[in-house]
Amino acid sequence: MQFFWIFVSFIDIRSAVRHLPPLAAVRAFEAIARTGSVTRAAEELCRSHGAVSRHLKLLQEHAGVPLFDKDGTGLKLTPAGATFYASVRASFDQLESAYERLGREAQGPGLHVACSATFAMRWLVPQLAVFYREHPDIRIRLSMTSAREMRNEGADLLLAWDLSGYTDADRRRALTLAPVRFGAVCTPAYARRAASDQVRIAHEYTSSAWNQWEAITGVAVATAGHLAFPHTHLCIEAALSGLGVALVEKRLISRELEEGTLVAPFGFVVFDGGLRALPAASRSLSGHADAFVGWLRRALADPAA
Fold this sequence. Notes:
The chain has helices spanning about 1-15, 25-35, 40-45, 50-65, 80-105, 115-135, 170-175, 190, 210-215, 230-240, 255-260, 285-300; strands at about 70, 75, 110-115, 140-145, 155-160, 175-185, 200-205, 225-230, 245-250, 270-280. The chain has about 300 residues and is of the alpha/beta class. It is built from twelve helices and ten strands. Keywords: DNA-binding, Transcription, Transcription regulation. GO terms for molecular function: DNA binding. This is DNA-binding transcriptional LysR family regulator.
């Protein structure tokens, strides 16, 4: 009887042991399959070409089947390799998502929000005290970035008005927060210049904004020259310095308009789409994100905000 239980215990232990391929070799295989090159995979993994080649050889020997064929100077997956890669890619995607979630949970409860530096500094951060009074259990972690660099990888929400660089699927998922109103602004002294003597100040990565504004208003201003900056706050500072006419969303310069340091001779016009919140594609909208979106809608609708 004692021998029987020892035998059963051995069976249980064997059944619990996973039969996995060499994991370092699988990582090398995934990089080669994705990049189509041992050289590029080695660069990505910060390993030598020979080390990555040895990993691939080990995996193929372990599996007992070739995973790649030569394809010119590169490699092409065999049918067996393609089937295996589909599973490996899905597993890596799940592992990456789970590990990212683990990191967020380790930082404690909160919400990761990505938005432009100008919107964060000039509107969002000054309003956060109001949000924290309503939701003391939620903490916002901000990633401030330029329009060119904005992506919601790692963030729970991306806030932006220009989603032209995103896919149709992303734009359909985006949640509308509030209208955006843009105006051509400059100092009062600069406004007295003729249009033919005015310089246009544009954002380097949302330069189509001027085209939209002119199409809506039918007005052509600042035709004497062109300046471009990578951040909206630099465009605002350039306008304040009397360098030209900048196209800016009204909320971002509410203080300057109130103080009279900037004027909008042609007023402000509503752009299509409005400010939107794009949730991360890899996860559903959390309760914290839902609460933040609801607060944003109310706060952005408040003329005093």
